[in-house]
Prior knowledge:
This protein has 14 helices and no strands. The protein is an all-alpha fold and 321 residues long.
Amino acid sequence: MIPKSGNRFSDEIMVKHGDRAPYRFFPHGSGSISALVFAVGAVALWSTNALVGKSLLANHSVSQVQFLQFAGAALVFALIRFTSRESAPPVGARAALLPLAVGFIGLVGTMVLQYIAFASMPVIEANLVAYTWPLMVAAVVIIFENPRRPALLGLAATLGFIGVALVISGGRDRTWFQGDLVGYCAAFGSALCMAFYSVMVGRVATSPDRLLLPSSLIGVALTLAWCARDGVALPTGTDLALGLYLGAGPMGLGYYFWSRALKLEGSGKVAVVAYLTPIASTLLLTLSGERLTMTAVAGAVLVIGSCVAVGLERSEAENYV
């Protein structure tokens, strides 16, 4: 008889695969430590994304920056894939569509929409709207994972969204919606794509490099066609190096580290670490000259508080089970 874990997703996977389930959520011991290390590494890289992206978008189009990003990420994923000794299990064409969709939505959808938002509105606002995705993941935890105190988690998530709204309202000159509607829709769409990826990546058996390499190559092809349509030349010198860094660092290694963390630990608990990204990246943007008002600071406090509440509930629930 297969023991129940108390987590509906885990139980379903264990029932389907027996006691040899490929991925069990929320393991204890070294797996949790490794997951935390990978997650912190991803957050450290992602924190530089908005600052470097802002400097490049000041002189180059979105299509140029995105092409360099996907090119750098594809090189990283290819290097990881070709140095990996892991063999891919045989799967049918239909079964391969889900990992491809997860990788495409999570990588291409998130990054393209995020950079459209960066180019359409103040970067400090776009960055914070795009990083509402950890709150969305927390909402999934509330709905599907049967937490002990759903009302408390719901209140925490709501306060987190209110905090993001305060940051947007006070991010610059104390006014709302300084960018155009396309920018805000793109930033929110980017958050939805990343939330979907964070929830789904631990539920597919495909390794991170196999999941992300095809999507990055698709991104290279699409953004190259975009550059050709815009009739722009690629940056050179320092800007070329910065663009490739955005691909190899925040997009390439950042996504790889995050995917490894989620496969080790699951989307509920590790996703809490992602709250550090908008905090750190906002600090870097502020140091670069972006203004942050007391209203925005109050919003950041609410976001941090919601992070702490979700993290404490997840740890308590895990110990209780």
